[in-house]
Amino acid sequence: MLEQVKDIFLFSEETPLIFTRFYFWAFFFVVLTFYSILYKHKTTRNAYLFLVSLFFYYKTGGLFFFILIFSTVTDFFIGQAIYKSKEPLHKKLWLALSITLNLGVLGFFKYDYFFTETINTVFNSDLPVVTHAAKWSNQLLGTGFDIDKILPPVGISFFTFQTISYSIDVYREKVKPVTNMLDFGFYVSFFPQLVAGPIVRAADFIPQLYQDFKLSRKEFGYALFLILNGLMKKMFVGDYLAVNLIDRVFANPASYSGFENLIALYGYSLQVYCDFSGYTDIAIGLALLMGFRLPQNFNSPYKARNVGEFWKRWHMSLSSWLKDYLYIPMGGNRGGSHFTYISLSVILIFVVLLSGNLWLIPIFLAVIGGIWFLTRVFPSFQLTVSTNINLMMTMLLGGLWHGSSWMFVTWGGLNGLGLLVYKFWKRISPYENKTGWLVHFWKIFITFNFITFTRIWFRGESMQGTYDLMNQVTGNFGWAQLGEMITSYKAPLLMLAFGLVVHWLPTSVKEWYKNWFIETPVYLKVLICVAVVFIIYQSLSAGLQPFIYFQF
Predict the structure, then answer these.
(1) What's the whole-number average pLDDT of the chain?
(2) Is the distance from CB of 65 to CB of 136 less than 8 angstroms?
(3) Between 65 and which of 23, 50, 57, 112 could a Cys-Cys bridge form, CB atoms 3.0 to 4.6 Å apart?
(4) 523: buried, middle or exposed (CB in 10 Å: 19+, 13-18, 0-12)?
């Protein structure tokens, strides 16, 4: 009995509190039960949800929840200081402190292993290369994390971006600072979206803290639809493809034919979408059941007709965050700024550290000097260079946000290059304004294949693995055994086809079956829920798969 109580209340790395476990739904039932008593009293409601969110994060990430508390407390007081400061310089200094603290914590826990390894490479030193986050967790909690692997606290990038946006929005006077620390803690830690988004803006969410609970019959049906839809995406489609195809191929691409590598790559494009959008569907649905509206995070991204449109449809909360808090402050499409050069310096420092070659520094300085000289000699050249640098740096920093490796830098750089190529191509393309179905299909086909191609570096285990994958696809496709392989992979291929067909269904069809579900009577909703749970249970073929974006 005592062991069972410990399992409920103590952290276990084997059983985190995630949406795909029965334990989470028992937890959510208990949360809703007490919420139904407290929801009319806004201050008590917010404090209650803050406390259960802390418990959720502790069950998911262990004692790393102290980092969440640190971010909450520091940014609460810094927000107050920014608002109360009369001098513009003082406001800027407080904002700089908030950004420095948040990025410092993020950098330490996400890049500590990387920096130690790089120092050893560059200076030929022998500092112990360990992940301090994992080491501390093992010492304090008795966990068994591998200290030789990067272990950032779960969801640290997401709640760090939220606290940074809060400080910036207070500085820009888009929102007044929260006067109650428990209310602010609730904003930072709201458990449905805490560990994998969507990233919530202070200006959008904080006003909801003081609004009365509202949930119409249609909104209830929509919330339930999102939860079921998210579970089906994640567990029925995404996890099935991961277990039966993707993980085994990416673990050793050289052992599989080019055909197997190719279908695994396409499978991963679908899996990462189903996994991440499935999570945010569930998060948005859970929040809506409690009367809170979270922003849409995905909009059928593989229907995009170009790379720019893709990034307006994929992880929309991050894309808009990078646009508003990084791309526009750098100057956006209006030119460069001091922030442009600061961001460029950060990128170049990371590139030097990743390569371990200090001789790159004079080369970078020479390139920057040459660009500066050309912009002074040819003023019309300055705007073009500045705006394109801003765009590329935004994507490179987005890549580094995902992880400190050449893999993510390459992935971000390729997407930035894709944006730049399209930016120039659309000026001369004879098809840009065509609306025929064949042109529409071709644009989607090219975009989907380009995005899938970049996933090689996003998913690959190593640079060598990416080379092996591409070598197999181009040199050892396995044409002679194609029929046999199609038969062997019949089930994963059918699941891949099913997922893509559903994704590419016309919006009108998706709206139809969504609205049909919303309008069904309660008893039919219950039957559909039971059917969905049964289908998911029948499709499980291995242990529950973690959400991909938990590692970011």
Answers:
(1) 84
(2) no
(3) 57
(4) exposed
Residues 6 or more apart whose Cβ sits within 8 Å of residue 323: 394
Name residue 447's amino acid: T
Q: What angle do CA 218, 219, 224 make, to 5 degrees?
A: 100
The DSSP line for 376-415 is HH-HHHHHHHHHHHHHHHHHHHHHHHH-SSHHHHHHHHHH
240 token code pair: 């099935």
B/e letters for 191-208, b = 16+ CB within 10 Å, e = fewer, are bbbbbbbbbbbbebbbeb
Residue 304's H or E segment, with its range, is none
pTM: 0.88
Q: Which residue has the tokens 């990025």?
A: 103
Looking at residue 511, its amino acid is E
Token pair 């590139």: residue: 351
| Residue spans of alpha helices (H) in 476-542 | 482-488, 490-503, 507-519, 522-539
Regions of the chain short of the pLDDT cut 70: 1-7, 9, 11-14, 113-114, 117-118, 121-123, 127-152, 330-360, 368, 371-372, 374-386, 541-546, 548-552
Cα torsion angle, 208, 214, 216, 219, sign: positive
Helix, strand, coil content of the chain in percent (nearest 5) = 75, 0, 25
- From the list 223, 155, 207, 192, the residue with the least C-alpha distance to 49 is 192
**Intra-chain end-to-end CA distance of the chain, in Å:** 36
CA gap 361, 371 in Å, rounded:
15
Q: Are 232 and 528 in contact (CB under 8 A)?
A: no
Whether 469 and 253 have beta carbons less than 8 Å apart is answered as yes
With residue 111 as reference, give the H or E element that holds it.
Answer: helix 88-123
DSSP labels for 8-61?
A: HHS--TTS---TTSHHHHHHHHHHHHHHHHHTTSHHHHHHHHHHHHHHHHHHHH
- Across 296-306, b (16+ Cβ under 10 Å) vs e yields ebbebbbbbbb
